[in-house]
C-alpha cells in the first residue's frame, strides 16, 4: 500500500504506461505509423523511426502518462462490469454524447499547442490507423478511452515533429542531417 509520504517515481509511471498500452494491444509502432501519416506530407525526409522516437519522447510527459493510466483503468473496469450504473452502460456503449473520454485525451494534448489540438480533432473524427481498430468494437473489449488516448499521443508526437522540423529549418538543417549526425 502506498504510504502517502513518498512520491511515485517517474520511472514507475513510465513503465506502467507502456505496459498498459501493450496489455491493451497498442504498440508504439502503431502510434508512430499514424504520426508518419500526419507529418510525411510536410517533411519528405521524415522516417518512421523518427516518428517512433517522437512517440517515445511524448510518453515521458506526466500529463499523457496519467491520462493513459486513468483511461485504460476505466476501460478495464468497464470490461469487468465494475462501474456503477448508468456509467457502466455509458462507457460500455461508448455513448456519443459522453465526451469525458475526449476531454481526458484533449487535456493531455494541450501540452503541445494548437497544432496538436487540431491534429487530435482530425484523428478523433477520421479514426486513422489503430485508432479505427480500437474504436470498432471487437469481442468483449472496451476501448472507449483508449482510442482517444492513442489519438492524443499521436497528435502530440506529430506536433513535436512539426515544431522540430521548423527548428531544423531555421538552423538550415533537415531530419536527414540529424539522422546522419546520430550515426
Automatic annotation (TrEMBL):
- List residues of the YutG/PgpA domain: 32-163
Q: Superkingdom of the source?
A: Bacteria
Q: Which Pfam families match?
A: PgpA
User: Which Gene3D superfamilies does the annotation name?
Assistant: PgpA-like
**InterPro entries registered for this protein in UniProt:** PgpA-like_sf (IPR036681), Put_PGPase (IPR026038), YutG/PgpA (IPR007686)
SUPFAM superfamilies attached to this UniProt entry: YutG-like
Task: Report what the protein is called.
Answer: Phosphatidylglycerophosphatase A
Amino acid at each position: 500500500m502506498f504510504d502517502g509520504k513518498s512520491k511515485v517515481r517517474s520511472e514507475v509511471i513510465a513503465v506502467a504506461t507502456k505496459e498498459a498500452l501493450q496489455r491493451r494491444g497498442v504498440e508504439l509502432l502503431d502510434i508512430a505509423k499514424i504520426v508518419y501519416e500526419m507529418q510525411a506530407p510536410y517533411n519528405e525526409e521524415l522516417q518512421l523511426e523518427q516518428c517512433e522516437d517522437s512517440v517515445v519522447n511524448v510518453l515521458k510527459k506526466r500529463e499523457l502518462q496519467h491520462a493513459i493510466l486513468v483511461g485504460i483503468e476505466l476501460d478495464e473496469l468497464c470490461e469487468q462490469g465494475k462501474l456503477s450504473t448508468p456509467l457502466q452502460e455509458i462507457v460500455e456503449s461508448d455513448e456519443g454524447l459522453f465526451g469525458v473520454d475526449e476531454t481526458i485525451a484533449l487535456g493531455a494534448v494541450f501540452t503541445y499547442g494548437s497544432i496538436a489540438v487540431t491534429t487530435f480533432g482530425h484523428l478523433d473524427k477520421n479514426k486513422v490507423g489503430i485508432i479505427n481498430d480500437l474504436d470498432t468494437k471487437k469481442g468483449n473489449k472496451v476501448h472507449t478511452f483508449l482510442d482517444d488516448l492513442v489519438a492524443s499521443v499521436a497528435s502530440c508526437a506529430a506536433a513535436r515533429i512539426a515544431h522540430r522540423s521548423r527548428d531544423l529549418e531555421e538552423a538550415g538543417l533537415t531530419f536527414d542531417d540529424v539522422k546522419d549526425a546520430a550515426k
